Amino acid sequence: MGLINADFHTLPELFSSVFSHYRGKKEKFPIARKINGIYEPIPYDSLEQDVHYFGAFLRENGISPKDRVAILSENRPGWYLADMAILNIGAIDVPLYPSLPPNQIEYILRNCSAKGIVVSNMLQLGKILSIWQNLPDLNLVIVMNRLEEPIEDVIDLNHVKDHGRTILENKPWILDGIKVEPDDIATIIYTSGTTGLPKGVMLTHGNLCENVKSCSSVIRLDETDCSLSFLPLSHAYERTGGYYLLFACGAAIYLAESIETISLNIAEAKPTIIFTVPRLFDRMKANMLKQISSESAIKQKIFYWAVKTGELYHRQMNEKNQASITVSIQHNLADKLVYHKIRKKFGGRLRYFVSGGAALPQKIGEFFQALGINILEGFGLTETSPVTNVNRPDKIKFGTVGPAVKNVQVKIAEDGEILLKGPNIMKGYWQDETATNEVIRDGWFYSGDIGEIDRDGYLKITDRKKHIIVTSGGKNIAPQPIENLIIESAFVDQVIVIGEKRPFLIAVIVPDFAKLNEYAAQNSISAKTNKELIENKAVQQIYEKLMRNISRQLATHEKVRKFLLIEEAFSIEKGNMTPTMKLKRKTITEKYAQEIDKVYNALNMVYNTE
């Protein structure tokens, strides 16, 4: 069936067409959340009603079209409600990661001159109260949780809905006459820039609606589908794919309780599609292999035979479009013995995972495919609303991000940079014409990624042109500001922060050995060489304390979890610095690959046992 109604050009039109279609149909619902251990649905009619109440309250309280209203919340029904209400009155919403510290929230709210903010709970409200005096434009603060005691100038969501109902009764015309155009800005999503100060990506209603339409022609969804949502809605990927696309097709969204409960929630929700990031597959594979290792020798043997059989079967299918009779018979047997049991653990209805936000290791994709679980890897950026490429269900090529979606053009520049064009390309960066002109030239968006297109039109990402780190969880992190904080220490001479395709960041540090030797002398630490010095426990503690102090100033995903001390300084002569004294990140990470892997493996063991 696909889209309920393909004739929408703005998000309010999309919402309205879906609400109209399901009006009075109580058995259908767009969202379900856990209450007292059971998934409870929110019917279309009650969500639509609340959207009108919320919108009426915003209008009555000074929010006009084009005003900015921020959302600082985890994924919960109130997020969808706030988003719909803000967009319906022609205002612009600004999503914020709930992990952000107050100083970064303050920068964003000042930068976009936010007039209002909707926060989830007392923790997030506390951040706003601590910075409110520095935000002259902010005059409306709404908290989703019920307020136990009144707080001056703060209102909770229940009261917002009550007031909204009264406002609509007294002024039934308050939501009339609001005209939203496709070229109007719908949302400003802040992403890390190379300078570290986040830039506000302006996405229009047309950008997002066109991307929803493009995605719907690749991934066929209808009202029999449902998804489990756990990626942050603040991220463009979850917002377009895991929310607008699903809503537009009448699919239900089940909200996961937390990252820790995903496997339990999958079994309960029985999703047909899940939007996720590569990090989840690492975890699932590790858990699967851990479970298998505790089984009997014969069961282990059957499992690994089934994996090998699955890999061989799919290799033959990819190369010749059919598998040999022997392999097909073995594959059917493996399905009965292994694959169907694994599919059952994923709810038994899962058609595919969609993976984005970071690169999916080819071997991981092939491992899951061998077990009968398909992963469609895609590619895009916040600036492209975000999807530009995705693998097709009928032809998956791991190691690529698939062909371009409908309406998107992709070409490779002379230096290998991936250029993109289409109705999904952002309007620009908020109040930053210089940065906008750097990335949008002659109608083409310069992605900052290096890639190549194969003969089937499948795009392969080969490198990153920019220094922005994309973790395996899909977070974009500018390393420079974090490095600047570390280098402030008298004990640090040189540093690079790394974490590309990794679950978290670590710092590779060259200590200031003059300062360190001075410290050693004062504290009776005997060391004949630099190597002995950096291996000393008391010396290690200096850097552990430094990382702890720095982490307090950073968002959760920016925290540096561990460090690696290097005994030799980086230099031009050694080839790990450019003539202009810039550190060569790639060269350094390659040179110390083994040591870096050791740090990550040690950390992974700690994190996996927690």
From TrEMBL:
<dbReference type="GO" id="GO:0005524">
    <property type="term" value="F:ATP binding"/>
</dbReference>
<dbReference type="InterPro" id="IPR042099">
    <property type="entry name" value="ANL_N_sf"/>
</dbReference>
<keyword id="KW-0067">ATP-binding</keyword>
<dbReference type="InterPro" id="IPR045851">
    <property type="entry name" value="AMP-bd_C_sf"/>
</dbReference>
<protein>
    <submittedName>
        <fullName>AMP-dependent synthetase</fullName>
    </submittedName>
</protein>
<dbReference type="Pfam" id="PF23562">
    <property type="entry name" value="AMP-binding_C_3"/>
</dbReference>
<dbReference type="InterPro" id="IPR020845">
    <property type="entry name" value="AMP-binding_CS"/>
</dbReference>
<dbReference type="InterPro" id="IPR020459">
    <property type="entry name" value="AMP-binding"/>
</dbReference>
<feature type="domain" description="AMP-dependent synthetase/ligase">
    <location>
        <begin position="38"/>
        <end position="430"/>
    </location>
</feature>
<dbReference type="Pfam" id="PF00501">
    <property type="entry name" value="AMP-binding"/>
</dbReference>
<dbReference type="GO" id="GO:0016020">
    <property type="term" value="C:membrane"/>
</dbReference>
<keyword id="KW-0547">Nucleotide-binding</keyword>
<dbReference type="GO" id="GO:0004467">
    <property type="term" value="F:long-chain fatty acid-CoA ligase activity"/>
</dbReference>
<dbReference type="InterPro" id="IPR000873">
    <property type="entry name" value="AMP-dep_synth/lig_dom"/>
</dbReference>
